[in-house]
Amino acid sequence: MKIAFITGAGAGIGEETARVAVEKGYKVAVFDRNAEAAEKVAKALGNAVALSGDVTDEASVEAALDKLGAVPDLVVNNAGVVRDRMFANATEDEWDLTMAVHLKGHFTTSRHAAAHWRDRAKAGEAVDARIINTTSGAGLLGSVGQAAYSAAKGGIISLTLVQAAELARYGVTANAIAPAARTRMTEKVFAETMAAPDDPDAFDEMAADNVAPLVAWLGSPDAAGVTGRVFEVEGGKVSVADGWHRGRVIDNGARWEPIAVGAAVTELLAEAPAPDPVYGAG
Q1: CATH number of residue 32's parent domain
Q2: Per-residue pLDDT reduced to its tens digit, 43-88
Q3: Catalytic site residue 26?
Q4: Sequence-ordered strand ranges (E) for 74-201
Q5: What are the C-alpha distances in Å from 69 to residues 29, 51, 121, 174?
């Protein structure tokens, strides 16, 4: 039986992902900072174990995995936090917390599992493992009032690309999702956007369970050839986010003079596509 280790699984997208993983035959480690929430979800799912700890502390994560007693085949990094603030008003503590939970939290779980996967592959064992990271539209485009969150989520995208490139030789894929859904983080900050429809029979586009099927597919054998990709998912919509590309180059063949390089940059900008606007930038 394959094992899925899902962080932030005490509610929201993490909980729904855990539910689908159990339905797909995984034994699920429900990992959440809130031990009571993790226990409640694990008990409801049946084929699951509750683990609590701090994703910002590698020792805490390792202790949870040791308690699990096995290396997971699927790591879903979903734990997150928001401390929304206009950049000029941001505090160092808020910045450090946001970076730790999102960016370091993706490192601690994945690195521990990746080291085991690598060692097994080098020993000649066939490995078929998955990392699924959680970024955001804020990480893709930036979001006004969310500098720390946007930077951390952007870092997760870059981390995913490196994981995919480095771990492919060991039978590991790494992808990221950028979901839009109603969670503990979004339901208050974006209350109007995230509100459930008044009609109970209407499709709830912001329900967290809309995200889980994509995660389930990415964790399946059918997705073995998919790696280093970022997917946006919202309601019934899914798309592949198209990242940075190098543009046309103007080569001066020597060191530029400021006036000349300015003219070259002006020419390049005139030809380059305009970037999508930052969320909330009017």
Answers
A1: 3.40.50.720
A2: 999 899 999 999 999 999 988 888 888 889 999 999 988 889 999 9
A3: no
A4: 74-76, 129-134, 172-180
A5: 11, 12, 19, 23
